[in-house]
Amino acid sequence: MSRTQTLARIGEALRRLCTTTGIILATCSVAVATGSEEDATLAPICAEREVQVITLLEDHALAQDVASDRLGEAGLARLEAQMTCYQGRVAEAVSIYDRIIVELGTVIARSVR
Question: Could you tell me the CA-to-CA distances from 106 to 36, 56, 78, 83, 98 in Å, in that order?
Fold first, then answer.
């Protein structure tokens, strides 16, 4: 997958996340417009964690098993991790992503009737 495809996929996931969880649109716009391709690169491990965290946020939003303010805080922490990675501090960014994953925990599937 090319860098452009990866960024497009992350952008689409962010738009869905914003719609699903109601996070402030301005925050998401900043995340989607993080620099030009010439001046910033996202390390592959950060891209992998980014997708994991976005998926986890979406799943919790759909399951409605985590308070929306916690999801919002996790979304802001995700943005912090993304910017940290773009700044070249990959280990620190991965640590932030991993903290989000641990704090949110797994999604428990519920039966819908």
Answer: 34, 8, 17, 25, 13
Question: What domain range includes position 29?
Answer: 3-104
Question: Is 39 a member of any domain?
Answer: yes
Residue whose C-alpha is closest to residue 61's, from 107, 30, 26: 107
Q: What value, to the nearest 5°, has the Cα angle with vertex 59 and ends 53 and 63?
A: 145
Query: For residue 113, is it within any domain?
Result: no
**Cβ 86 vs Cβ 50: under 8 Å:** no
Q: Has this prediction a pTM greater than 0.85?
A: no
Percent of the chain with pLDDT over 90: 50
Within-domain flag for 112 = no
Helix locations, the chain, DSSP H: 3-21, 25-32, 44-63, 68-86, 90-104
For the segment 40-57, what is each residue's pLDDT rounded down to a tens digit? 678 999 999 999 999 999
Task: Tell which residue, 36, 31, 40, has the closest CA to residue 10.
Answer: 31
Dist CA 75 CA 25 (whole Å): 12
